[in-house]
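Researcher: I'd like a structural prediction for the single chain below. Treat it as a standalone chain; there are no partners to consider.
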Amino acid sequence: MPDVQNLSPLIFEPIYKEKIWGGQGLRLKLGKNIPQNRPVGESWELSGLSGNESVVMRGPLSGKKLSEVFNAGQNINGKNAAFPLLYKFIDANRDLSIQVHPGYNNTLKSPVSGDSKTECWYIIDAKPGTRVICGLKKGVKLQDVNDACETGNLPDLCNYIPISSGDVVFVPAGVIHGTFANTLLYEVQQSSDAIFRMFDWNRVDDNGQLRPLHAKEAMNALDMTYHEYHVIEPVKMGDIGAYHTIRVACRYFAVEEYRCAGPTSLKLPARKTFQVITILTGSICFSGENQAASFVKGETVFVPVSAHEYGINAEANTQLLLSYTPELVSDIISPL
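Model: Treating it as a single chain, here is the predicted structure.
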């Protein structure tokens, strides 16, 4: 293992996932090297999940697993014991199932520890008129949901939200949700792949079989609270040569956006945790410690704590997302 005091930003091999609802959008819109003519729905950019662990793509650590790098010390991970997040690009070529993630106890009416999965979506591309499901309609009761799962009428109870490119949707654990066709998004979530599928549009897989549903488990995990604040408005930050906004912040993750109209020099904030940068358009170059590394559209970069002093040079028309596990007061509230 190279000296972790001077470890440079790293890029990992994407893990491509074929899905019944996938397509070719990751290749056509992000330049991903996915198999052609296959329904690829997800590109896992950074994952510490067992059996789906990211591997360093290039450089002196090429071939190392994320856990090997991450556990090398606090100069890499800050104070995180294990990699706490999962990063994905998702291409919804067809409608996804209506589902819920664990992390909420309906009986206790409160979040629970364990295999929790709170997530957010940055909408990269969506056709006009596209909607997502987030939550249930006002006044819907748990028994209504149970009955609808049995009759196949669950879509009638769901809350539909119009979306556009550039929107951010926040989906806490326990909130019923679904994504529709012609949507390309970037997802930041807690490190979990747990899904309780509630409705799947009565479609069959390649073997002619219906995919399993998990209505009983979903009933116990559903957060029935109604609200209208799933699409998060951006919060403008100070002038740093780029249009800089906070897009979402919670105790698990924060996501900031930088839009650079012209060539721009940026400096990462000094934080006590790792940071992750994903380039949506354009390209960037890191420079520091007599090293330089360039990254382009569609790539996700892991920035260890030891590399926060690196400078970033972004070409014109670059758009990037920066995320991290925040200290909410010092990282989010105080700068405002």
